[in-house]
Design brief:
single chain; alpha/beta; 2-enoyl-CoA Hydratase, Chain A, domain 1; 6-stranded mixed sheet; 3-stranded parallel sheet; 19 helices; globular
């Protein structure tokens, strides 16, 4: 792939004092690949020091969403060939997440349509996060035998009560109102008003522009379920969470069914990740996710989950082991131990100085 092809997958322009980054793979719902991440890192770094740029806007091309996550087909192919491209991609992606989190200028993200996985990483760490009535967001990693990353474990650990634990273990798609409740977004703007908001950002401050267009959000369905969610997910053991869910009504029982269909290993490692990440900085959280992610690459479930959901699409993953009770505590612990030299390929810490 030549440089021109990479540049076309994310478009950059300046209008007035607004720098606009448009993820431009609409057929793939703007899924992130290595070239896109490198381009964003470079351009955002330049704009941070450019006095002509006062505000940055991130949006997605097409009408399906901002970003459906990382390009998991590319990850699957890399796993099949035993490559190191995924580890390198994650290292750059996590540096981008950290840059966005500490960006020195207002970073406005239009979280319209699908905003999943890596899409959350390039939006929810921003300072001005806008959702709409079309927003469908979440961290669906347990569905494909993986664990929330891009700082998602930290974001969800900070959500009210145990709502973030519920979102992470079930991998549920959430509405814009739910995203506001979870702390993944700041403002609700009807999708039809986004073009006018983008135009206002060209010559107004981000605060003034968003204030003109923001409206009260609908009620959050997740917030309405808070009582049974907090009761069930207070446990630190996944099997106990499932047992508790089955005693708390139909909605809770449905959540138990959902969790039991996910990768048992991913569910247990995700829960442990959420508990361990409390009190960490974003950089520390990303380092933990990097260690866990590399272990997922080496295990069977991540590859099998992508195969079942995206490659063969039979929706019938054969998890190993197949049940929560068969995932040993020592197996979970192994995902978190420091990386050995043979595992690294890059760095023990993609976002912090070693």
């Amino acid at each position: 792939m030549g440089a021109e092809d990479v540049e076309e997958e994310v478009l950059f322009e300046r209008r007035g004092h607004l720098g606009i980054a448009t993820l431009n793979r609409p057929k793939a719902v703007n899924a992130l690949n290595a070239g896109m991440v490198k381009a964003m890192l470079s351009q955002l770094t330049d704009w941070a020091d450019d006095d002509a740029v006062a505000t940055v806007l991130l949006r997605g091309a097409g009408d399906r969403g901002l970003c459906a996550g990382g390009d998991i087909v590319a990850i699957y192919k890399d796993m099949l060939h035993g490559g190191t491209e995924t580890a390198e991609f994650w290292a750059d992606e996590y540096r981008l997440n950290a840059l966005i989190s500490h960006y020195p200028k207002p970073y406005v993200a239009f979280m319209d349509g699908l905003v999943l996985g890596g899409g959350v990483g390039v939006s929810a760490h921003g300072s001005v996060r806008v959702v709409t009535e079309r927003t469908r967001t979440g961290m669906p990693e347990t569905t494909i035998g993986f664990v929330p990353d891009v700082g998602g474990t930290l974001l969800l650990s900070r959500s009210p009560g145990e709502a973030g634990t519920h979102a992470a273990l079930t991998g549920a798609h959430l509405s814009g109102a739910d995203a506001l409740f979870l702390g993944l977004a700041d403002h609700f703007v009807p999708s039809g008003n986004l073009p006018a908001l983008a135009e206002a950002l060209e010559d107004s401050t981000a605060e003034a522009a968003v204030e003109r267009f923001a409206q009260a959000a609908p009620d959050s369905a997740l917030a309405a379920q808070r009582e049974w969610i907090d009761a069930a997910y207070a446990h630190d053991d996944a099997e106990e969470i499932v047992r508790s869910l089955r005693t708390l009504g139909d909605e809770a029982a449905a959540a138990a069914d959902t969790i039991e269909a996910k990768s048992p290993t991913s569910v247990k490692v995700t829960l442990e990740s959420l508990r361990r990440v409390r009190g960490l900085s974003l950089e520390e959280a990303l380092d933990q996710e990097y260690r866990v992610g590399l272990r997922c690459l080496a295990g069977p479930d991540f590859r099998e989950g992508i195969r079942a959901q995206v490659v063969d699409k039979d929706r019938n993953p054969q998890w190993k082991p197949p049940a929560l009770a068969e995932v040993r505590e020592a197996d979970v612990e192994g995902y978190f131990v420091p990386l050995g030299e043979r595992e690294l390929g890059l760095s023990a810490s993609p976002v912090q100085s070693n």
